[in-house]
Amino acid sequence: MGVVAKGNDLAHILELCKSAPAVKAELMQACADEALSIVQLEFRRSQDPNGNSWEPLKYRDGKILVKTAIMRNSFTSQATEHGFQVGNNVPYTNTHNEGYAPRNIPQRQMVPDELTENWIKKLDKAADIVMQRKIKESGGK
């Protein structure tokens, strides 16, 4: 069993390939936007990139890592030529993301060291939405 595709059948895909740099940039931006959404969702759920709950607070009531919301609201994302970046320039973010044993600060990871299965699934979905739209825009089905 198999399928045969001829040049005319693939016209819309071939047209997309001509605009590959623009499509790639749009894909990377969609992934960057989705990554930022994932980080925000992790804050709302108080969960790490693998879906594990952050260690509970010991010294105050309230939402974990959201005393002033400065750290949560300072995350940014940016598409790059080869992918995307998610980051935060608040000085204490890395301390909480990695933990700091000398001060008894537990690790409450917000951004993974490497993409997790959960992140990959969500990024794939975001990229798929862009590709489906691009195929439709080019006259494909």
Task: Explain what you see.
The protein has 141 residues and is mostly helical. It has one domain. Helices cover 46% and strands 7% of the residues. It has a two-stranded antiparallel ribbon with strand order 1-2. Helix 2 runs antiparallel to helix 5. Residues 1-7 have low confidence and may be disordered.
Q: What's the tally of helices? A: 5
Fraction of helical residues:
40-55%
Strand content: 5-15%
Q: How do the SSEs run, as a string of H and E?
A: HHHEEHH
The structural domain count equals 1
Strand order of the largest sheet: 1-2
Main structural class: mainly alpha
Main sheet summary? 2 strands, antiparallel
Mean pLDDT: 85
Radius of gyration: 20 Å
Poorly predicted parts: 1-7
User: What is the count of β-strands?
Assistant: 2
N-to-C CA distance: 23 Å
Shape: elongated
Which descriptors apply to this entry?
mainly alpha; 5 helices; two-stranded antiparallel ribbon; 2 strands; 141 residues; elongated
Secondary structure layout:
Blueprint: H1 11-18, H2 20-45, H3 70-73, E1 76-80, E2 83-87, H4 93-98, H5 117-137
Antiparallel strand pairs: 1-2
Q: What is the compact description of this entry?
A:
This protein has helices spanning 11-18, 20-45, 70-73, 93-98, 117-137, and strands at residues 76-80, 83-87. The chain is mainly α.
